[in-house]
Amino acid sequence: MKKIFLASLMLLATACTDDDASIDDLFIPNVSNQWTSDRNSIFFFTTEQSNVSESTFTGNEQPQDNSNDVYQLEGSFKNHDIEYTFSSGPETGIKYTGKFIEGASLKIKATGSNGKKVEITRN
Q1: What phi-psi label fits residue 11: left (phi over 0), alpha (psi between -120 and 50 degrees) or beta?
Q2: Which DSSP letter does residue 92 get?
């Protein structure tokens, strides 16, 4: 009887899980605020929706070289995955794909379609 109960319980647990949408994968990032990159620039993001696990956003990168340049970008995120494409500046058309990394400070680690890597940390 115990074996039948355990087998039934295991089947129920298997039937109730969805490999594509685990509760462990749910992540609601707060992308508002200023972000500092490892390439001496500041990023800003504005999401279409707040307090959600998936949204589109617009933003910009501002090099900290006294040039007053501002490079526009747009993208989206879903849980830990993020991607954005520059619509102005020297990387116009370059798409960056990466992940949010949780820790003492929230980070984004991404790689561009040009092979360049960037790490961005929320201030």
Answers
A1: alpha
A2: T
Tell me which residue of 91, 97, 113 sits closest to 39, measured CA to CA.
Answer: 91
pLDDT tens digit sequence for 32-82: 889 999 999 999 999 988 999 999 999 999 999 999 999 999 999 999 999
**What residues contact 121, with CB distance under 8 A and at least 6 apart?**
35, 36, 37, 105, 106, 107
pTM of the full structure: 0.80
What does residue 20 show for φ and ψ, rounded to 5 degrees? -85, -20
Q: What does each C-alpha distance from 123 to 4, 41, 87, 119 come to in angstroms?
A: 54, 12, 24, 13
